[in-house]
Design brief:
The complex is a heterodimer.
Chain A (H helix, E strand, L loop, with lengths): L1 H13 L6 E8 L11 E7 L5 E8 L23 H6 L12 E2 L5 E8 L11 E10 L5 E10 L5 E6 L6 E7 L1
Parallel strand pairs in A: 3-4
Antiparallel strand pairs in A: 1-5, 1-9, 2-3, 2-6, 6-7, 8-9
Chain B lengths: L1 H13 L1 H4 L3 E6 L3 E2 L4 E9 L8 E2 L5 E4 L5 E2 L2 E5 L4 E6 L4 E18 L2 E7 L1 H7 L5 E18 L14 E5 L11 E8 L2 E2 L4 E6 L11 E4 L5 E5 L4 E11 L7 E14 L3
Classes of the chains: A mainly beta, B mainly beta.
Protein name (chain A): DUF2271 domain-containing protein
InterPro entries (chain A): DUF2271
Organism (chain A): Tahibacter soli
Chain lengths: ~180, ~270
């Protein structure tokens, strides 16, 4: 009885320090169009009230700024086309976001790996969330997909969904 | 002859009753963008929203307020047959208020048997209307035509009401409007809640439909009204009233109106 209690206690204490993983797969589809530009893509974790719990990635055209701390990269001009991300996170963020901003990606599957030991997931309170992936393409369309999940995960779980045009397969793997 | 023709045109543009037959509007190229971008704005009076097919809005009384509350300057202003155009460089982060503010008096009177017309400010009125003017009739008008553009995160500094005429005090920020969501605004008359006032909201694109599809709402006791945006797009809002709150005693009536253009975004 006493032994069982101490095991339970150990388990309880271990709770906050276990390493939970969150891995995302985003497929940028191969589109046969006359004028193709790589899409701008934002990946984030959303709370139930649609506020942003964590920015995971935002891919946009990166160009060197001109002058000292002066001109912003021209690539940021179109960031507001990621409408939902811009409203929820982008417009109040200082760009580039360290560890989140990156260059646009070519067609193919792109893997993103995160764990609760470090930013941006460190300190994410337990609860229900949605993974959100939004893509907007110059002279193309815009699309957003969501995958609900619980954090931290009780056991390993795999989720997937698919965009119609601007996003291919989107996968989410979480494990305690 | 040339002068009076010019004056007649100016008067026609100024007389509120004739202006109300059409819709005056400011149409920005974008309302939500990033800092250091440019926007361009069309300004016109027309029947269809938002097509410049009648007369331009004159830019003489254009007043732009930057996110820090200070005036900002329009660039490349142009007034053509159907519309005026200007550019604005969004050098600051936050919300710009773009307004055309028309306020003044206009009078008609007889002098030595001749009919005269006059327009101007309250200060000029006392000096310029002859003491022996007969059948003097004076009307006052105060009109605001506004739109809003935000670079980065929205802020409220430029949206502070001036306390003159009809103004919009946002409860929901005018650059944070989304289809399917309900926005709330407050209308103020001379800085105080404009209660029980009819407000008309018309979606753009009216050229390609049979009906105006106007949304009619009324302000409550605190001057507030709500609107649930049915679809994304540009919307035109108007409210107007007549009162006796004039700045010179000879003016019996004051015509006050407020117009704004909003962009409602898709979720």
């Amino acid at each position: 009885m006493r032994a069982r209690f101490s095991i339970a206690l150990t388990g309880l204490l271990a709770g906050p320090v276990f390493a939970a993983d969150l891995n995302v797969g985003v497929e940028v589809p191969n589109l046969k169009v006359a004028e193709y530009h790589r899409p701008y893509v934002a990946v984030w974790v959303e709370r139930d009230d649609q506020t942003v719990a964590a920015n995971l990635a935002v891919w946009y055209q990166q160009k060197e700024g001109k002058g000292e701390g002066g001109k912003m990269e021209q690539g940021t001009k179109w960031l507001a086309d990621l409408r939902q991300w811009w409203r929820r996170a982008g417009r109040s963020a200082t760009l580039p976001i360290d560890g989140v901003s990156g260059a646009t990606r070519p067609a193919g599957v792109h893997k993103l790996e995160f764990d609760d030991a470090k930013a941006p997931l460190a300190g994410l309170p337990a609860g229900s969330y949605k993974l959100v992936v939004e893509a907007a393409r110059e002279v193309g369309g815009r699309e957003i997909v969501r995958i609900p999940f619980q954090w931290p995960p009780a056991k390993p779980a795999h989720f997937d969904t698919k965009g119609d045009v601007e996003l291919g397969a989107v996968t989410l793997d979480v494990s305690p | 002859m040339k002068f009076s023709a010019k004056l007649a045109v100016a008067l026609a543009a100024f007389v509120p009753f004739s202006a109300f037959a059409h819709k005056a509007w400011l149409l920005p190229s974008t309302t939500v963008t990033t800092q250091d971008q440019w926007v361009t704005v069309d300004a016109a009076v027309s029947n269809d929203l938002f097509y410049f097919n009648h007369v331009p809005v004159k830019l003489d009384n254009l007043a732009i307020t930057a996110p820090d509350g200070k005036p900002a300057q329009a660039e490349n202003p142009f007034t053509g047959k159907f519309r005026s155009v200007f550019d604005l460089h969004l050098t600051q982060a936050g919300t710009y208020k773009i307004a055309v503010v028309n306020a003044g008096l206009f009078a008609s009177y007889e002098l030595n048997g001749e009919k005269k017309r006059w327009r101007g400010t309250a200060e000029a009125f006392a000096k310029e209307i002859p003491a022996d003017a007969k059948n003097l009739e004076v009307n006052q008008s105060a009109g605001r035509n506004e739109t809003f553009v935000t670079a980065g995160a929205p802020n409220d500094t430029a949206l502070k009401p001036t306390g003159a005429g009809l103004e919009l005090a946002p409860v929901t920020h005018p650059n944070d409007l989304f289809a399917g969501e309900t926005a709330k605004f407050r209308l103020l008359l001379d800085g105080k809640p404009a209660a029980d006032l009819d407000v008309e909201i018309v979606p753009g694109g009216s050229r390609w439909r049979d009906k105006q599809n106007e949304i009619k709402v009324k302000t409550d006791k605190s001057g507030e009204f709500s609107v649930t945006w049915p679809a994304p797009g540009m919307y035109w809002l108007e409210a107007s009233l007549e009162d006796a709150n004039t700045s010179v005693k000879q003016a019996k009536k004051r015509r006050v109106n407020y117009v704004a253009t909003f962009e409602v975004l898709q979720q």
